[in-house]
Amino acid sequence: MLIDTHCHINMMVKKEFDVALTPTELSLTDAIVQEASNNDVSLIINVGTRKVENHNCILIAQKFPHVFATVGIHPNDSDTWQEDIQCMKQWLTDKEKNKIVGIGECGMDRHYQNHNLQQQRDAFKAQIELALEHDLALIVHSRDAYDETLTILEEYKNNISRAVMHCFSYDKAFADIVISWNFMLGIGGTITYPKNTILREIVTHADLKNIVLETDAPFLPIQSMRGKQNHPQYIKAIAEYVATLKNESLEIIARQTTRNALRLFNLEKYYS
Questions:
Q1: What residue ranges of the chain have pLDDT lower than 70?
Q2: 106 CB contacts (<8 Å, ≥6 apart)?
Q3: Helix H or strand E encompassing 2
């Protein structure tokens, strides 16, 4: 059993972001989930980024027994965060029906020049507090915002019990800090990229209990698939790559990362 802890199936089946799925597009998700299952991916966490996509994630999760949703506001989409978070609160009033298991992805991102850091900070803190209020996993996005992210997370380090650094891309010092706070490192296809020597060294030496696997599909495919759409089915290829790095069997990697993911999203009672 393998788990994709972070993907965006809703973005795989349509050409435009931030628009509602049509019935035809929703039907296209059947093949994606089946292809993942055919490659031993038994559970998928579909991650939200803003109001419309959050609702799309909920619809997909409700369609499949082994797909769950998170709702969140991506830092690059935080311009309407106050409106979006009100919708999140409404969906969370019935989080079981809506199959919501986490808040995010949320965080800090200085990659684009037009970023509004104060807006991102406000949205990030509001979502951390929402995750704590509802005892949900926190999915943290951080890009080119090393210090800004750590500063905010440190405020909550004694309260956050379940969190993951999505698409981990920083150095060993950052990894050591968040691991000391019991965060997971989200490891995906980027570990296969030739330039990512530091990430490979971190994963090689990290305790496997601190790692979960993700694809971020349709983005960031493994090296051999660069230029093509990513897919949850490639979790198996990522697991095989990590197994080689750590000189472990695929079975051990799959078993431990699955345990980690079930604990992260509080799904152990369903898949023990």
A1: 272
A2: 72, 73, 74, 75, 123, 124, 127, 128, 138, 139, 140, 141
A3: strand 2-7
Q: Is 204 helix (H, G, I), strand (E, B) or coil?
A: helix
pLDDT at 113: 84
What single DSSP character describes residue 143? E
Dig out the tokens for 2 from the structure. Answer: 């393998």
- Tokens 């803190």 appear where? 125
Q: Which one-letter amino acid corresponds to residue 146?
A: Y
* Order of strands, sheet of 100-109, starting from the edge strand that comes earlier in the sequence: 2-7, 41-47, 67-71, 100-109, 137-143, 163-165, 183-187, 211-213
222-265 confidence digits (pLDDT tens): 999 999 999 999 999 999 999 999 999 999 999 999 999 999 99
pLDDT at residue 272, rounded to an integer: 60
The 3 state secondary structure assigned to 184-196 is: EEEECHHHHCCCC
